[in-house]
Predict the structure.
Amino acid sequence: MKIYLIYEEHYDYDIGHYDNVTVYPYKSMDGVIQRLIDETGKTKEEIEQDLKETNSTTTANFYYRIEESELQ
């Protein structure tokens, strides 16, 4: 079964690096896109373009990276 993982990395400007990573699993890319819309405030088109180019998207303090994986 194919799943999608969102790696949500928080950047802390006070310490100058990423300090926290949370991983969220999703069954469909539609769920991933909706989560990123909700989290970033970007449009669906902006999210799809970001994912097409870099498989990630960002906000001021967060970096969201998408990974496709298989459940066994």
